[in-house]
Automatic annotation (TrEMBL):
<keyword id="KW-0999">Mitochondrion inner membrane</keyword>
<keyword id="KW-0496">Mitochondrion</keyword>
<keyword id="KW-0408">Iron</keyword>
<dbReference type="InterPro" id="IPR001015">
    <property type="entry name" value="Ferrochelatase"/>
</dbReference>
<dbReference type="GO" id="GO:0004325">
    <property type="term" value="F:ferrochelatase activity"/>
</dbReference>
<keyword id="KW-0456">Lyase</keyword>
<dbReference type="Pfam" id="PF00762">
    <property type="entry name" value="Ferrochelatase"/>
</dbReference>
<keyword id="KW-0627">Porphyrin biosynthesis</keyword>
<dbReference type="GO" id="GO:0006783">
    <property type="term" value="P:heme biosynthetic process"/>
</dbReference>
<keyword id="KW-0472">Membrane</keyword>
<dbReference type="InterPro" id="IPR033644">
    <property type="entry name" value="Ferrochelatase_C"/>
</dbReference>
<comment type="function">
    <text>Catalyzes the ferrous insertion into protoporphyrin IX.</text>
</comment>
<protein>
    <recommendedName>
        <fullName>Ferrochelatase</fullName>
        <ecNumber>4.98.1.1</ecNumber>
    </recommendedName>
</protein>
<comment type="pathway">
    <text>Porphyrin-containing compound metabolism; protoheme biosynthesis; protoheme from protoporphyrin-IX: step 1/1.</text>
</comment>
<keyword id="KW-0350">Heme biosynthesis</keyword>
<dbReference type="InterPro" id="IPR019772">
    <property type="entry name" value="Ferrochelatase_AS"/>
</dbReference>
<dbReference type="InterPro" id="IPR033659">
    <property type="entry name" value="Ferrochelatase_N"/>
</dbReference>
Length: 411
């Protein structure tokens, strides 16, 4: 995620290095099992939207996506490393295929460990289905509502979803990011894809577009996180519970992106602050950052270094909270659950480590999604005030064109 182009030789060295993790037996105190991830995908089927009436309002649920099968991994990585909004690289058209090919076996092994693929499409479909059912009741004047999934790096791609919405004759389209906290590298990239779809065809959209581009402090989102934290704290030994350190873990960003003025770090911090307020600051906590890629400086402290440092100082009861993700995927099921809560925790001598459950099928969270869309439709706003403001040191001209595209929509 972000700009790692300043040292391409070092980047190539890192992606070719064999640094796969050794297998480690599941620690008895950890809440999740990799087999459970596969069982979840088997139990929760993607249901078709059963609505005979022509949909009037389309909600495009934007996310990065993840490969559903091991065979999908290479193309997922190729699209990811080709995205200049996410990872600008020198000679990108040549270097991206090289990196994708080299990394595919390692990433396939990680997906194999969590059941053979990402559950993110399944969870997004479940969330979307529940959301539109609630919306039909909350907002009959904009019904029927239909959700669409738009992923950046796997099918259904964002552009494919927009095309389907146009074919369906949608009148009112909402680009609804599934990243609660805005970053130019994530939500920004998805919105750019929508703009590029129309710009490439030199045709005005038939639909009236608007976007829910961030929602880091929505009350129901905060309540969901707080509820999941309380549930997990209750599973710690009673004598240890008050001393558990809560580690809010979010995907990191390169400092080059942060220093341009990307609002993501402060928006993640706002989510953490609201959650701790709801918990009455019951426990010590830190905001930490995971998933660094490449050799350049990234936002810290990193989640793994924090776990090591806390253990060295005698803090050996830890609760991991994925604070920037709305469902399980590789960064929760493998990075947090296996790399950190299994392998690293065993190496460091952690006494108790747990991971708060992801939002997934939480009915209160699905209600939050519906509430967000309902309020947005009633507001008649095309976007948040923040979206109109470009990063002070922005280097991507497409960002300005995308912001202008949404600002000019006549609702």
């Amino acid at each position: 995620m972000g700009d790692i182009s300043q040292n391409p030789k070092e980047l190539m060295r890192l992606v070719t290095k064999n640094n796969s993790n050794k297998m480690c037996p599941r620690a008895p105190w950890h809440w999740h099992s990799t087999s459970a991830a596969a069982e979840q995908r088997a139990d929760v089927k993607e249901k078709p939207q059963l609505n005979a009436r022509k949909p009037k309002t389309g909600i495009l649920m934007l996310n990065m996506g993840g490969p559903e099968t091991l065979d999908d991994v290479h193309d997922f990585l190729l699209r990811l490393f080709t995205d200049k909004d996410l990872i600008p690289l020198p000679a990108q058209s040549k270097l991206a295929p090289f990196i994708a090919k080299r990394r595919t076996p390692k990433i396939q092994e990680q997906y194999h460990r969590i059941g053979g693929g990402s559950p993110i499409k399944m969870w997004t479909a479940k969330q979307g289905d529940g959301m539109v059912k609630l919306l039909d009741e909350l907002s009959p004047e904009t019904a029927p509502h239909k959700f669409y999934i738009g992923f950046r790096y796997v099918h259904p791609l964002t552009e494919e979803a927009v095309e389907e919405m146009e074919r369906d004759g949608i009148e009112r389209a909402v680009a609804f990011t599934q990243y609660p906290q805005y970053s130019c590298s994530t939500t920004g990239s998805s919105l750019n894809a929508i703009y590029r779809y129309y710009n490439g065809r030199r045709a005005a959209p038939k639909m009236k577009w608007s976007t829910i581009d961030r929602w880091p402090t929505h009350p129901l989102l905060i309540q969901c996180f707080a509820d999941h934290i309380r549930q997990e704290l209750d599973r710690f030994p009673s004598k240890k519970r008050d001393d558990v350190v809560i580690l809010f873990s979010a995907h990191s960003l390169p400092m080059s992106v942060v220093n341009r003025g990307d609002p993501y770090p402060q928006e993640v911090g706002a989510t953490v602050q609201r959650v701790m307020e709801m918990l009455n600051f019951s426990n010590p906590y830190r905001l930490v950052w995971q998933s660094k890629v490449g050799p350049m400086p990234w936002l810290g402290p990193s989640t793994d270094d924090t776990i090591k440092g806390l253990c060295e100082r005698g803090n050996k009861n830890l609760l991991l909270v994925p604070i920037a993700f709305t469902s399980d995927h590789i960064e929760t099921l493998h990075e947090l659950d296996i790399e950190y809560a299994q392998i690293l925790a065993n190496e460091c001598g952690v006494e108790n480590i747990r991971r708060a459950e992801s939002l997934n099928g939480n009915q209160l969270f699905i209600k939050a999604l519906a509430d967000l869309v309902d309020a947005h439709l009633k507001s008649a706003e095309t976007s948040s005030k923040q979206l109109s403001l470009r990063c002070p040191l922005c280097v991507n001209p497409i960002c300005g064109e995308t912001k202008a595209f949404f600002a000019k929509q006549n609702l």
